[in-house]
Amino acid sequence: MHATYRTAAVNRTGADGVSSVPGGLSVSVASPLGNDPDAAATNPEQLLALAWATCLNGTAQVIVAGARRTAVRVEVELRPVTPGPGYEFHVDAHLSVEGASPGESREILDAAHARCPVSKLLRDAATAHVHTEEYAPD
């Protein structure tokens, strides 16, 4: 089977510096664990949150066929692994659907989570979870 879309990213500087898409986007990155992280830079935790929020909400919009407004809020925590060494992500995605009951929101979340490519990547991770919440307008 062929790829519907393909991209690549390159980082040659480590946690502090620049990550880029060849021929395109270039993003300043900084580790949140650094002594003086660059507040204007992003980090892997933020990029993961953006990727999952965008993908899961885009998929939810496909599920509801644009008939309702949806929102996804993703929280990413970096925690030390016990016992170590290193760290791991703990990730929670929260979907809300305007005008939906809690049961309807759960059905939409389950369908979107089953279809979203980022969810498929994360769904077997013990530290990644999905939730519904009440829709709050901007």
Number of strands: 6
- SSE arrangement, N to C: EEEHEEHHE
Which word captures the global form? Answer: globular
Extract low-pLDDT stretches.
none
> β content, as a range?
25-35%
Kindly name the structural category. alpha+beta
Percent helix, as a range, is 25-40%
**Biggest sheet, strands in spatial order?**
1-2-3
Radius of gyration: 17 Å
Question: How many DSSP H or I helices?
Answer: 3
Kindly, what is the distance between the CA atoms of the first and last residues, rounded to a whole number of angstroms?
Answer: 41 Å
Task: Please provide a written account of the structure.
With 138 residues, the protein is α+β, with helices and mostly antiparallel strands. Helices cover 29% and strands 27% of the residues. The chain contains three helices and six strands. It has helices at 44-63, 102-115, 117-122, and strands spanning 10-11, 17-20, 26-29, 70-80, 87-97, 128-132. The chain has a three-stranded antiparallel β-sheet with strand order 1-2-3, with no helix packed on it. A hairpin with a 5-residue loop joins strand 2 (17-20) and strand 3. Helix 1 crosses helix 2. The radius of gyration is 17 Å and the shape is globular.
